Amino acid sequence: MSGAAPGRFVVELPDEDVARMLQLIDQERRRAPAPEAAWASAADCRGFDRLCDYWLNGFDWSAQQARLNEQPQFTLEVDGVLVHFVHQRAAGGPGIPLLLAHSWPSTFLEYLPLVPVLTNPSAYGIPGPGFDVVIPSLPGFGFSERPRGKAWSYAATAGLWHRLMQQLGYSEFAVSGTGFGAGVASMMAWQHPERMSALQLNSVDVPPPPSPEQALSTAELLALAQSGCWDAAAPAQPCGLVPKSNMLSFALADSPYSVAAWIVQRWRLWAGPAADLSEASDHDSLLTMLSLYWLTGTTGASILDFYDNRAEPPRLEPGQKITVPTAIGVFPDSAGNRGPDGAEFEWQKRLYRLERITEFPRIGSFGVIHDPQLLARELFQFVQDCAR
Protein backbone atom coordinates (compact mmCIF):
# COMPACT_ATOMS: atom_id res chain seq x y z
CA MET A 1 0.00 0.00 0.00
CA SER A 2 1.30 3.43 -0.87
CA GLY A 3 0.59 6.72 0.86
CA ALA A 4 -1.06 7.26 4.24
CA ALA A 5 -2.95 4.46 5.98
CA PRO A 6 -6.75 4.76 6.32
CA GLY A 7 -8.06 5.94 9.67
CA ARG A 8 -10.88 4.02 11.35
CA PHE A 9 -14.13 5.98 11.24
CA VAL A 10 -16.98 5.85 13.75
CA VAL A 11 -20.36 7.51 13.16
CA GLU A 12 -20.92 9.85 16.12
CA LEU A 13 -23.44 12.55 15.28
CA PRO A 14 -24.35 14.92 18.13
CA ASP A 15 -27.48 14.15 20.13
CA GLU A 16 -28.46 17.81 20.03
CA ASP A 17 -28.46 17.73 16.23
CA VAL A 18 -30.76 14.70 16.25
CA ALA A 19 -33.09 16.45 18.73
CA ARG A 20 -33.10 19.58 16.56
CA MET A 21 -33.92 17.49 13.47
CA LEU A 22 -36.93 15.91 15.15
CA GLN A 23 -38.09 19.27 16.51
CA LEU A 24 -38.03 20.79 13.02
CA ILE A 25 -39.89 17.83 11.54
CA ASP A 26 -42.62 18.19 14.16
CA GLN A 27 -42.93 21.96 13.60
CA GLU A 28 -42.96 21.79 9.81
CA ARG A 29 -45.34 18.85 9.71
CA ARG A 30 -47.86 20.75 11.82
CA ARG A 31 -47.86 23.93 9.76
CA ALA A 32 -47.27 22.46 6.28
CA PRO A 33 -49.55 19.47 5.68
CA ALA A 34 -49.00 17.48 2.50
CA PRO A 35 -50.87 18.86 -0.53
CA GLU A 36 -53.76 16.91 -2.02
CA ALA A 37 -51.74 15.50 -4.92
CA ALA A 38 -48.17 15.25 -3.63
CA TRP A 39 -47.71 12.10 -5.69
CA ALA A 40 -50.08 10.05 -7.80
CA SER A 41 -52.78 9.61 -5.18
CA ALA A 42 -53.92 10.66 -1.72
CA ALA A 43 -52.71 7.29 -0.43
CA ASP A 44 -49.16 8.42 -1.18
CA CYS A 45 -49.67 11.54 0.95
CA ARG A 46 -50.97 9.43 3.79
CA GLY A 47 -48.00 7.10 3.42
CA PHE A 48 -45.60 10.03 3.72
CA ASP A 49 -47.47 11.27 6.76
CA ARG A 50 -47.14 7.82 8.37
CA LEU A 51 -43.44 7.84 7.58
CA CYS A 52 -42.98 11.18 9.35
CA ASP A 53 -45.05 10.01 12.29
CA TYR A 54 -42.76 7.00 12.68
CA TRP A 55 -39.72 9.29 12.32
CA LEU A 56 -40.98 11.28 15.31
CA ASN A 57 -42.38 8.53 17.48
CA GLY A 58 -40.80 5.20 16.55
CA PHE A 59 -37.47 5.73 14.83
CA ASP A 60 -34.39 5.22 17.02
CA TRP A 61 -31.39 7.01 15.53
CA SER A 62 -29.02 5.81 18.26
CA ALA A 63 -29.86 2.18 17.46
CA GLN A 64 -29.36 2.75 13.75
CA GLN A 65 -26.08 4.57 14.40
CA ALA A 66 -24.88 1.58 16.42
CA ARG A 67 -25.79 -0.71 13.49
CA LEU A 68 -23.82 1.49 11.11
CA ASN A 69 -20.81 1.25 13.39
CA GLU A 70 -20.84 -2.53 13.08
CA GLN A 71 -19.48 -1.94 9.56
CA PRO A 72 -15.71 -1.44 9.20
CA GLN A 73 -15.57 2.20 8.07
CA PHE A 74 -12.57 4.36 7.30
CA THR A 75 -11.52 7.75 6.01
CA LEU A 76 -8.51 8.47 3.84
CA GLU A 77 -7.23 11.66 2.27
CA VAL A 78 -6.83 11.09 -1.47
CA ASP A 79 -5.41 13.98 -3.51
CA GLY A 80 -6.47 16.38 -0.79
CA VAL A 81 -10.05 15.04 -0.63
CA LEU A 82 -11.22 13.25 2.53
CA VAL A 83 -12.93 10.04 1.39
CA HIS A 84 -15.21 7.93 3.59
CA PHE A 85 -15.63 4.25 2.76
CA VAL A 86 -16.59 0.82 4.03
CA HIS A 87 -13.89 -1.82 3.58
CA GLN A 88 -14.77 -5.41 4.43
CA ARG A 89 -12.40 -8.21 3.42
CA ALA A 90 -13.54 -11.67 2.35
CA ALA A 91 -14.03 -14.24 5.07
CA GLY A 92 -11.50 -17.04 5.12
CA GLY A 93 -8.82 -15.75 2.80
CA PRO A 94 -7.94 -13.42 -0.08
CA GLY A 95 -10.98 -12.10 -1.93
CA ILE A 96 -11.64 -10.60 -5.35
CA PRO A 97 -11.46 -6.78 -4.97
CA LEU A 98 -14.81 -5.15 -5.75
CA LEU A 99 -15.78 -1.48 -5.54
CA LEU A 100 -19.50 -0.68 -5.21
CA ALA A 101 -20.56 2.82 -6.35
CA HIS A 102 -23.88 3.99 -4.91
CA SER A 103 -26.56 6.16 -6.50
CA TRP A 104 -28.65 9.24 -5.73
CA PRO A 105 -30.87 9.85 -3.81
CA SER A 106 -29.00 7.37 -1.70
CA THR A 107 -25.78 6.86 0.26
CA PHE A 108 -23.29 4.10 1.00
CA LEU A 109 -26.14 2.51 2.99
CA GLU A 110 -27.61 1.32 -0.32
CA TYR A 111 -25.03 -1.47 -0.62
CA LEU A 112 -24.66 -2.52 3.02
CA PRO A 113 -27.16 -5.41 2.69
CA LEU A 114 -24.81 -6.90 0.06
CA VAL A 115 -21.71 -6.95 2.27
CA PRO A 116 -22.32 -10.18 4.25
CA VAL A 117 -23.33 -12.06 1.10
CA LEU A 118 -20.38 -10.85 -0.97
CA THR A 119 -17.75 -11.38 1.71
CA ASN A 120 -18.99 -14.77 2.95
CA PRO A 121 -20.81 -16.47 0.04
CA SER A 122 -20.61 -20.00 1.46
CA ALA A 123 -22.93 -18.94 4.30
CA TYR A 124 -25.58 -18.19 1.65
CA GLY A 125 -25.07 -21.29 -0.49
CA ILE A 126 -23.12 -19.43 -3.19
CA PRO A 127 -20.00 -21.17 -4.55
CA GLY A 128 -16.68 -19.50 -5.19
CA PRO A 129 -14.33 -17.12 -3.37
CA GLY A 130 -15.69 -14.07 -1.63
CA PHE A 131 -15.03 -10.42 -2.41
CA ASP A 132 -13.01 -7.76 -0.69
CA VAL A 133 -15.71 -5.07 -0.72
CA VAL A 134 -15.01 -1.32 -0.86
CA ILE A 135 -18.00 1.08 -0.72
CA PRO A 136 -16.90 4.72 -0.95
CA SER A 137 -19.29 7.57 -0.23
CA LEU A 138 -19.56 9.79 -3.31
CA PRO A 139 -17.94 13.22 -2.78
CA GLY A 140 -20.45 15.46 -1.02
CA PHE A 141 -22.54 12.53 0.25
CA GLY A 142 -22.56 11.89 4.00
CA PHE A 143 -19.01 11.77 5.30
CA SER A 144 -17.02 12.31 2.07
CA GLU A 145 -15.84 15.81 1.22
CA ARG A 146 -16.72 17.50 -2.05
CA PRO A 147 -14.05 19.87 -3.41
CA ARG A 148 -15.25 23.46 -3.55
CA GLY A 149 -14.86 26.05 -6.24
CA LYS A 150 -14.97 23.84 -9.32
CA ALA A 151 -17.19 21.36 -11.13
CA TRP A 152 -16.77 17.82 -9.85
CA SER A 153 -17.86 15.36 -12.51
CA TYR A 154 -18.14 11.59 -12.83
CA ALA A 155 -14.68 11.63 -14.41
CA ALA A 156 -13.18 13.45 -11.40
CA THR A 157 -14.70 10.95 -8.97
CA ALA A 158 -13.55 8.07 -11.17
CA GLY A 159 -9.96 9.24 -10.93
CA LEU A 160 -10.35 9.62 -7.16
CA TRP A 161 -11.67 6.07 -6.79
CA HIS A 162 -8.79 4.67 -8.86
CA ARG A 163 -6.31 6.32 -6.54
CA LEU A 164 -8.28 5.13 -3.49
CA MET A 165 -8.07 1.51 -4.65
CA GLN A 166 -4.39 1.94 -5.40
CA GLN A 167 -3.75 3.25 -1.90
CA LEU A 168 -5.66 0.27 -0.49
CA GLY A 169 -3.25 -2.00 -2.35
CA TYR A 170 -5.48 -3.23 -5.19
CA SER A 171 -3.83 -3.21 -8.61
CA GLU A 172 -6.83 -4.80 -10.36
CA PHE A 173 -10.47 -4.90 -9.31
CA ALA A 174 -14.09 -5.08 -10.46
CA VAL A 175 -16.63 -2.25 -10.15
CA SER A 176 -20.41 -2.27 -9.87
CA GLY A 177 -22.50 0.91 -9.96
CA THR A 178 -26.05 2.25 -10.00
CA GLY A 179 -27.28 5.73 -11.00
CA PHE A 180 -24.54 8.28 -10.33
CA GLY A 181 -22.38 5.32 -9.36
CA ALA A 182 -22.89 3.78 -12.80
CA GLY A 183 -21.59 6.97 -14.40
CA VAL A 184 -18.53 6.93 -12.14
CA ALA A 185 -17.97 3.20 -12.77
CA SER A 186 -18.15 3.74 -16.54
CA MET A 187 -15.60 6.55 -16.37
CA MET A 188 -13.33 4.34 -14.27
CA ALA A 189 -13.46 1.71 -17.02
CA TRP A 190 -12.73 4.36 -19.64
CA GLN A 191 -9.80 5.94 -17.77
CA HIS A 192 -7.90 2.79 -16.77
CA PRO A 193 -9.27 -0.35 -18.45
CA GLU A 194 -6.06 -2.21 -17.65
CA ARG A 195 -6.86 -2.00 -13.94
CA MET A 196 -10.44 -3.27 -14.16
CA SER A 197 -11.35 -6.93 -14.51
CA ALA A 198 -15.10 -6.40 -14.89
CA LEU A 199 -17.77 -3.68 -14.99
CA GLN A 200 -21.33 -4.36 -13.79
CA LEU A 201 -24.01 -1.66 -14.16
CA ASN A 202 -27.57 -1.50 -12.88
CA SER A 203 -28.27 1.62 -14.93
CA VAL A 204 -26.38 3.43 -17.69
CA ASP A 205 -25.61 7.09 -17.07
CA VAL A 206 -23.31 7.64 -20.05
CA PRO A 207 -25.03 8.81 -23.26
CA PRO A 208 -24.00 7.46 -26.66
CA PRO A 209 -21.32 9.45 -28.47
CA PRO A 210 -22.61 11.91 -31.07
CA SER A 211 -22.11 10.52 -34.55
CA PRO A 212 -23.00 12.34 -37.78
CA GLU A 213 -22.66 9.07 -39.66
CA GLN A 214 -24.99 7.01 -37.53
CA ALA A 215 -28.18 8.55 -36.15
CA LEU A 216 -29.87 7.02 -33.14
CA SER A 217 -32.80 4.74 -33.86
CA THR A 218 -36.33 5.48 -32.63
CA ALA A 219 -35.95 2.82 -29.94
CA GLU A 220 -32.69 4.34 -28.74
CA LEU A 221 -34.16 7.84 -28.59
CA LEU A 222 -37.10 6.47 -26.60
CA ALA A 223 -34.77 4.73 -24.17
CA LEU A 224 -32.79 7.94 -23.66
CA ALA A 225 -35.95 9.97 -23.18
CA GLN A 226 -37.02 7.60 -20.40
CA SER A 227 -33.68 7.62 -18.61
CA GLY A 228 -31.46 10.07 -16.79
CA CYS A 229 -29.12 9.98 -19.78
CA TRP A 230 -31.58 12.18 -21.71
CA ASP A 231 -30.60 15.19 -19.63
CA ALA A 232 -26.97 14.81 -20.70
CA ALA A 233 -27.74 13.83 -24.29
CA ALA A 234 -30.20 16.69 -24.90
CA PRO A 235 -29.77 19.43 -22.28
CA ALA A 236 -32.38 21.65 -23.91
CA GLN A 237 -35.14 19.15 -23.19
CA PRO A 238 -37.13 19.61 -19.98
CA CYS A 239 -36.82 16.90 -17.37
CA GLY A 240 -39.03 17.26 -14.33
CA LEU A 241 -37.01 14.87 -12.17
CA VAL A 242 -33.68 16.65 -12.52
CA PRO A 243 -32.98 20.00 -10.86
CA LYS A 244 -31.63 22.50 -13.36
CA SER A 245 -29.50 24.46 -10.91
CA ASN A 246 -28.02 24.20 -7.46
CA MET A 247 -30.50 26.73 -6.03
CA LEU A 248 -32.54 23.88 -4.56
CA SER A 249 -29.68 23.37 -2.11
CA PHE A 250 -30.60 26.54 -0.24
CA ALA A 251 -34.26 25.56 0.06
CA LEU A 252 -33.38 22.22 1.64
CA ALA A 253 -30.57 23.37 3.93
CA ASP A 254 -32.65 23.97 7.07
CA SER A 255 -35.62 21.71 6.53
CA PRO A 256 -35.45 17.95 7.24
CA TYR A 257 -39.16 17.74 6.35
CA SER A 258 -38.46 19.18 2.88
CA VAL A 259 -35.45 16.89 2.44
CA ALA A 260 -37.69 13.93 3.22
CA ALA A 261 -40.46 15.05 0.84
CA TRP A 262 -37.99 15.66 -2.00
CA ILE A 263 -36.08 12.38 -1.63
CA VAL A 264 -39.00 10.09 -0.82
CA GLN A 265 -40.82 11.31 -3.92
CA ARG A 266 -37.83 10.33 -6.07
CA TRP A 267 -37.56 6.95 -4.41
CA ARG A 268 -41.23 6.22 -5.02
CA LEU A 269 -41.08 7.34 -8.65
CA TRP A 270 -37.92 5.41 -9.47
CA ALA A 271 -38.51 2.35 -7.32
CA GLY A 272 -41.78 1.49 -9.06
CA PRO A 273 -45.22 0.64 -7.67
CA ALA A 274 -44.25 -2.74 -6.21
CA ALA A 275 -41.54 -1.18 -4.00
CA ASP A 276 -43.83 0.71 -1.64
CA LEU A 277 -41.39 2.63 0.54
CA SER A 278 -44.19 3.78 2.82
CA GLU A 279 -44.46 0.28 4.28
CA ALA A 280 -43.24 -0.08 7.86
CA SER A 281 -40.67 -2.71 6.91
CA ASP A 282 -38.74 -0.06 4.96
CA HIS A 283 -39.00 2.75 7.47
CA ASP A 284 -35.79 2.24 9.43
CA SER A 285 -33.48 1.94 6.41
CA LEU A 286 -35.12 4.86 4.59
CA LEU A 287 -35.17 7.14 7.64
CA THR A 288 -31.55 6.31 8.46
CA MET A 289 -30.62 7.56 5.00
CA LEU A 290 -32.79 10.68 5.29
CA SER A 291 -31.38 11.44 8.74
CA LEU A 292 -27.84 10.96 7.48
CA TYR A 293 -28.40 13.46 4.66
CA TRP A 294 -29.74 16.14 6.99
CA LEU A 295 -27.45 15.54 9.98
CA THR A 296 -24.35 15.78 7.76
CA GLY A 297 -25.75 18.77 5.83
CA THR A 298 -25.03 17.13 2.47
CA THR A 299 -28.39 17.13 0.67
CA GLY A 300 -27.42 20.18 -1.37
CA ALA A 301 -23.92 18.89 -2.13
CA SER A 302 -25.35 15.62 -3.43
CA ILE A 303 -27.62 17.47 -5.88
CA LEU A 304 -24.59 19.20 -7.41
CA ASP A 305 -23.79 16.03 -9.35
CA PHE A 306 -26.70 16.86 -11.67
CA TYR A 307 -25.35 20.37 -12.18
CA ASP A 308 -21.67 19.46 -12.58
CA ASN A 309 -22.24 16.56 -14.97
CA ARG A 310 -24.12 18.86 -17.34
CA ALA A 311 -21.05 21.11 -17.32
CA GLU A 312 -18.71 18.15 -17.91
CA PRO A 313 -20.86 15.36 -19.37
CA PRO A 314 -19.48 11.80 -19.29
CA ARG A 315 -19.45 11.41 -23.06
CA LEU A 316 -17.14 9.46 -25.34
CA GLU A 317 -16.23 10.60 -28.82
CA PRO A 318 -17.48 8.86 -31.99
CA GLY A 319 -15.75 5.54 -32.50
CA GLN A 320 -14.59 5.27 -28.88
CA LYS A 321 -15.70 2.35 -26.72
CA ILE A 322 -15.32 1.14 -23.14
CA THR A 323 -13.36 -2.10 -23.50
CA VAL A 324 -13.73 -3.60 -20.03
CA PRO A 325 -16.05 -6.68 -20.05
CA THR A 326 -19.45 -5.26 -19.08
CA ALA A 327 -22.70 -6.68 -17.69
CA ILE A 328 -25.94 -4.74 -17.34
CA GLY A 329 -28.59 -5.67 -14.78
CA VAL A 330 -32.12 -4.64 -15.68
CA PHE A 331 -34.70 -3.91 -12.99
CA PRO A 332 -37.91 -3.83 -15.10
CA ASP A 333 -40.06 -0.69 -15.08
CA SER A 334 -37.39 1.47 -13.46
CA ALA A 335 -36.42 4.68 -15.21
CA GLY A 336 -34.61 3.99 -18.43
CA ASN A 337 -34.57 0.21 -18.12
CA ARG A 338 -36.72 -2.05 -20.27
CA GLY A 339 -36.55 -5.65 -21.40
CA PRO A 340 -33.08 -7.05 -22.26
CA ASP A 341 -34.09 -7.95 -25.83
CA GLY A 342 -35.24 -4.45 -26.75
CA ALA A 343 -33.62 -2.36 -29.48
CA GLU A 344 -32.76 0.30 -26.90
CA PHE A 345 -29.65 -1.77 -26.06
CA GLU A 346 -28.22 -1.04 -29.50
CA TRP A 347 -26.37 2.08 -28.35
CA GLN A 348 -25.16 0.40 -25.17
CA LYS A 349 -23.57 -2.32 -27.28
CA ARG A 350 -21.83 0.41 -29.28
CA LEU A 351 -20.63 2.11 -26.09
CA TYR A 352 -19.61 -0.91 -23.99
CA ARG A 353 -18.03 -4.30 -24.46
CA LEU A 354 -21.38 -5.72 -23.46
CA GLU A 355 -21.14 -9.42 -22.62
CA ARG A 356 -24.13 -10.00 -20.37
CA ILE A 357 -27.64 -8.58 -19.87
CA THR A 358 -29.67 -9.86 -16.94
CA GLU A 359 -33.29 -8.99 -16.23
CA PHE A 360 -33.92 -9.22 -12.51
CA PRO A 361 -37.40 -10.44 -11.48
CA ARG A 362 -38.08 -7.41 -9.30
CA ILE A 363 -39.47 -3.95 -9.99
CA GLY A 364 -37.65 -0.74 -9.22
CA SER A 365 -34.37 1.12 -9.44
CA PHE A 366 -33.52 0.17 -5.84
CA GLY A 367 -33.75 -3.59 -6.28
CA VAL A 368 -30.36 -3.92 -4.57
CA ILE A 369 -31.99 -2.95 -1.28
CA HIS A 370 -35.12 -5.06 -1.71
CA ASP A 371 -33.33 -8.30 -2.56
CA PRO A 372 -29.52 -8.09 -2.19
CA GLN A 373 -28.95 -11.75 -3.05
CA LEU A 374 -30.16 -11.15 -6.62
CA LEU A 375 -27.34 -8.73 -7.37
CA ALA A 376 -24.87 -10.71 -5.26
CA ARG A 377 -25.38 -13.84 -7.37
CA GLU A 378 -25.09 -11.80 -10.56
CA LEU A 379 -21.80 -10.32 -9.39
CA PHE A 380 -20.40 -13.68 -8.38
CA GLN A 381 -21.21 -15.27 -11.72
CA PHE A 382 -20.09 -12.43 -13.99
CA VAL A 383 -16.99 -11.24 -12.11
CA GLN A 384 -15.74 -14.78 -11.51
CA ASP A 385 -16.23 -15.60 -15.20
CA CYS A 386 -14.14 -12.53 -16.11
CA ALA A 387 -11.45 -13.50 -13.60
CA ARG A 388 -10.95 -16.94 -15.16
From TrEMBL:
Domain Epoxide hydrolase N-terminal, first and last residues per copy: 8-111
Keyword terms, alphabetized: Aromatic hydrocarbons catabolism, Hydrolase
Gene3D superfamilies: alpha/beta hydrolase
Transmembrane segments: none
Pfam families, A to Z: EHN
This protein's record includes keyword Acetylation: no
Domain of life according to the entry: Bacteria
Family membership: Belongs to the peptidase S33 family.
UniProt protein name: Pimeloyl-ACP methyl ester carboxylesterase
Organism of provenance: Arthrobacter russicus
Organism ancestry: Bacteria, Bacillati, Actinomycetota, Actinomycetes, Micrococcales
